[in-house]
Specification:
The protein is an all-alpha fold and about 300 residues long. It contains 14 helices and no strands. About 50% of the residues are buried. The model is unreliable at about 1-20 and about 305-310 (pLDDT under 50).
């Protein structure tokens, strides 16, 4: 009996260790996959307008996610509440992806990634507005203050150097608000449905919404090989594969711990902008970057423990 217990303990320990390795691998993968889009959007918008880019990206992702949703057997239940899935798609993808694309036509990809890193800060404010009485606890208020200081440093110092477009900053702040509101919308209206079907329907709705723009773009001929590859990566890797990986991560560690990827994405965006596109490491980025991330961490910190609990 002692030997059997020992063997069972060993199996459980090996399983837990494997799960830990898998979770860490998914953390790293998601941090990269959702840090990549800023680079490929920057490349693609040279030849493709933001509306068509969002449309083409979601068409490609739909071809992967819709079959998976059908296989899950939950697509029918999701379609019965399609207006909420469409609303989620508009808030999570249709508006943000167009605004990010438009903003990146005038600013660096790294700056865009850093501005989107404010989502947890905005999320804490949104949560307070919808009734979360812990959303603006002292520790979170501290995080908000640090984060706002970081944004002021980022925007202010880069503005003095002539590296910031005011309209782009406004657009990216709207994106941050959309990313903060969308999860609350879907958790309240479709939280009982499998995520794969909700995301699939949402992405398909955006693909249909921007189908005229996608068709119009293709009527002018295929973009260059470099841009075409960027669109494929955005659709297959940064959307379809990224959502599949995120669902698996949620299964392994839960929604609270999965938000750690929020603090890795902007670092990837900044690094790729500098290394691949030759974007400058500005004084605003050097000072504002750590302040925004530190503020985001404390803005999502639970008042009763050390786990960030608000997902962007």
């Amino acid at each position: 009996m002692a030997t059997e217990n020992s063997n069972a303990d060993a199996v459980i320990e090996r399983s837990a260790s494997a799960m830990t390795r898998q979770a860490y691998g998914l953390f790293l993968m998601m941090g990269v996959l959702w840090g990549l889009p800023y680079l490929f959007i920057k490349i693609a918008i040279v030849e493709v307008n933001p509306f068509a880019l969002a449309g083409l990206r979601t068409i490609i992702a739909s071809c992967v996610l819709i079959p998976l949703a059908i296989r899950s057997g939950s697509l029918g239940a999701t379609l019965k509440r399609w207006p909420w899935a469409v609303a989620f798609g508009v808030m999570e993808m249709a508006i943000p992806w167009v605004l990010v694309g438009h903003a990146e036509s005038r600013i660096t990809s790294g700056f865009a990634g850093l501005m989107i890193a404010t989502v947890p800060i905005v999320g804490a404010i949104v949560a307070w507005f919808v009734g979360d009485h812990h959303a603006l606890s002292p520790v979170r208020l501290t995080g908000l203050g640090i984060g706002v200081l970081g944004v002021v440093a980022l925007v202010g110092l880069d503005s003095l150097a002539g590296n910031v477009d005011v309209l782009s900053v406004v657009e990216l702040l709207i994106v941050a608000i959309c990313y903060a509101v969308a999860p609350l919308l879907i958790s309240r209206k479709m939280g009982d449905l499998p995520s794969i079907s909700v995301i699939a329907v949402a992405i398909l709705s955006v693909a249909i919404l921007y189908l005229p723009a996608s068709i119009g773009q293709m009527q002018h001929g295929l973009p260059s090989q470099k841009v075409s590859l960027s669109i494929l990566v955005l659709g297959l890797v940064c959307t379809a594969l990224a959502f599949i990986g995120f669902f698996k991560l949620l299964e392994l560690v839960g929604p609270a711990r999965s938000t750690v990827i929020t603090f890795l994405n902007p670092a990837v965006a900044v690094a790729l902008g500098i290394i691949v596109l030759g974007e400058p490491l500005t004084l605003g980025t050097a000072i504002g970057f750590p302040l925004v991330l530190l503020g985001s961490y404390f803005a999502t910190k639970s008042p009763t423990n050390n786990v960030a609990e608000v997902a962007p």
